[in-house]
Design brief:
One of its GO terms (molecular function) is arsenate reductase (glutaredoxin) activity. The protein has 145 residues and is of the alpha+beta class. The protein is 23% helix and 14% strand. It has one domain: Glutaredoxin. It contains 3 helices and 6 strands; from the N terminus they run βαβααββββ.
C-alpha cells in the first residue's frame, strides 16, 4: 500500500485553472483537502508560511484580473508585505489561485500543470477542460509546443 500523500488545495471552483489543478490531483489517485479560500481564507501566519515554502513573495500571489487590485492602488511599489497581507485578508479574491501544498512542496499552480511537479505519477490520461492533453495514457506528461 502506498504511503499517504496529503495534499491541500486552496481552490476557487469558479476558476478553470483551479478546477483543472484539482482534477489532476484526483487523476494521481489523491483526494485532497479542498479549501475554498473565498469562504475560508488561510490565516495570515499560514499564508506567510505557504509563501515561504513556495519561494514566493506576497506580490507574486496578488491577483489583478477580476479583483479590486487597481481600485486599491496595489501596484504602488511602496506598499509593504504587511500592508499587502492586510489587504488580502480584507479581500481574499486578491489571492491568486490555486495554491497547492504537498509533501513535495508548495506552488501557485499557474499554469495548472505545475501541480504535476508536486504529485506522484498520474494514473492515466488527462485533458484540461479546454481539451488540451496534458498527460498521456501512460500517465506521462505531454510535451507542450
Amino acid at each position: 500500500m502506498p504511503e499517504p500523500f496529503d495534499v491541500v488545495i486552496y481552490h476557487n471552483p469558479a476558476c478553470g485553472t483551479s478546477r483543472n489543478t484539482l482534477a489532476m490531483i484526483r487523476n494521481a489517485g489523491i483526494e485532497p483537502h479542498v479549501i475554498e479560500y473565498l469562504k475560508t481564507p488561510p490565516a495570515r501566519a499560514l499564508l506567510v508560511q505557504l509563501l515561504a515554502r513556495a519561494g514566493l513573495s506576497v506580490r507574486d500571489v496578488l491577483r489583478e484580473k477580476g479583483t479590486p487590485f487597481a481600485e486599491l492602488g496595489l501596484s504602488n511599489p511602496d506598499l509593504t508585505d504587511g500592508q499587502l497581507l492586510d489587504t488580502i485578508e480584507a479581500h481574499p479574491i486578491l489571492l491568486n489561485r490555486p495554491l497547492v501544498a504537498t509533501p513535495k512542496g508548495v506552488a501557485l499552480c499557474r499554469p495548472s500543470e505545475a501541480v504535476l511537479d508536486l504529485l506522484p505519477a498520474q494514473q492515466g490520461e488527462f485533458f484540461k477542460e479546454d481539451g488540451e492533453r496534458v498527460v498521456d495514457e501512460h500517465g506521462q506528461r505531454v510535451a507542450t509546443a
